Structure formats: C-alpha cells, structure tokens
Amino acid sequence: MNEPIRILIVDDHAIVREGLRALIRGKPDLAVVGEAADGAQAIAQARTLQPDIILMDVVMPHTDGLEAIRQIRKENPYARIIVLTSFGDEHQVVTAIKAGALGYLLKDSSPQELIEAIRCVYRGESSLDPSVARKLMLQFRETPMPDAGTDALTERELQVLKLVAHGLSNDTISHRLFIGEGTVRVHVSNILGKLHLESRTQAALYALREKLVELEISA
Questions:
Q1: CB 52: neighbour CB atoms within 10 A?
Q2: CA–CA gap between residue 176 and residue 219 (Å, rounded)
Q3: Domains along the sequence of the chain with CATH
C-alpha cells in the first residue's frame, strides 16, 4: 500500500480542526500529521513537518492565512495548499490564488468534495468551489494579463496548457498526448515560466481568460 497523503490542518477553531481530523481519520489514503491554530504556527509546522497537503483557513489571529500561504510558498514553492474558509470574498479568493493556493473551498462544501479536493491537489491538479471559480473569472476578466502572450508557447506547450485548464493531471495528460509524465512536468514548468505564472490554477485561469478553453462549471 502507498504511503497516505500527509495533511496539516490550519484553523483557529479547535472544533473545526477536530471535525476535519475525524473526517480524514476514516480514509486509509489520508493522514493528519499536524495542526496549527494560526498562520505563524502554520509556517513553523509546514517547515518542520513538510506535509503533502495544507488545509488553510484565511481569517486567523496573529498571522492570517493569506500571509501564511505567501511565507510557506516562499520557503517551499512546491507546497500544496487548499484554502478552506467560510468566506468567498472576491479579494481574498484572488489574493489566495495569486499567493499560490491550488484549491479554494468553502466550509459548506460536502465532506466528499473536500476529500476529492485533497486528492486532486495532491496529484498536482487544482480544485475550486464553483462559486469561487466564477468570481475568479469575473476578476481575471478585469485584471491585466502578464506581458507574455500565448505566442511565447510552443504548439505542444499550448496543448498541455489547454489540458491543464481542463483540470487534467500530468499522468492523464501524458497518456492523452502519448508523451512521458516527466516531459509533461517540463512543459508545465516552461508554461508557468514563459507566462510569468505561479501555479497550475493560475495557468488554468489564464487559459480561460484567453478563451483557449471554455468555462464548464455546474451549479
């Protein structure tokens, strides 16, 4: 059996942390390795534990979740962070994604949606609450894109970008395009570098903004 996905829970409410711990406890492929009650603790725990996934609240005392995301990603650009919050505020959503969060879920999401989000983000995919995705699209329609356009991409990189925007994992993309998974990783890295983006989520939003793919989100 493969090692379980190691999760750090960050929330200033003990009852929320315990609820998440209880939910995750029943999944053999998931394991909680630590908890933090504020952003400062989250930064320290992320540094010490090096979890696979961080579930991050936004509004917390001392250091908030957004600053924690920035600091954690600065120390570890590969950190996989899912924002789990009660707030779908447009500014917070955009700030969290720009800071490097790969997922953004509201606390009224179903337990299954959360579990699937953890597994998706662990695979390197993005996971956005449908209402959050719509807000992001509205915001990004009004936000200037990076200077580099898609003409900076090769034909293969453009193909990969479109598949990333559809939420496909590197493994799935490799099978779809008949190339190695390592080659897909290189293409994704090149895409992010050429377009001056920080994450797959930002790349997906860029593709949507440039109308390379259509937004397909159910209510």
A1: 19
A2: 28
A3: 5-139 (3.40.50.2300), 145-209 (1.10.10.10)
Q: One-letter amino acid identity for 171?
A: D
Query: Model confidence over 48-105: pLDDT tens digits?
Result: 999 999 999 998 988 899 999 999 999 998 899 999 988 767 778 778 887 888 888 8
pLDDT of residue 141 exceeding 70, the answer is no
136, with CB counted inside 10 A (0-12, 13-18, 19+), is buried
Q: Encoding tokens for residue 45?
A: 């725990």
| 138: confidence class by pLDDT, cuts 50, 70, 90 | low
56 near 38, Cβ under 8 Å? no
How far is CA 217 from each of CA 49, 127, 141, 201, rounded to the nearest angstrom? 35, 12, 17, 15
Mean pLDDT for the stretch of residues 106-117: 89
For residues 159 and 73, give the distance between their C-alpha atoms in angstroms, rounded to a whole number: 27
The single residue listed with the structure tokens 């650009």 is 77
For position 139, what pLDDT does the model report?
62
Q: Which DSSP symbol is given to 65?
A: H
- Measured at the alpha carbon of residue 179, what is the angle toward residues 120 and 169, in degrees to the nearest 5? 5
Task: State the Cα–Cα distance between residues 55 and 46, nearest whole angstrom.
Answer: 11
Q: Which of 103, 119, 107, 173 is nearest to 5 (CA)?
A: 119
| pTM for the model | 0.71
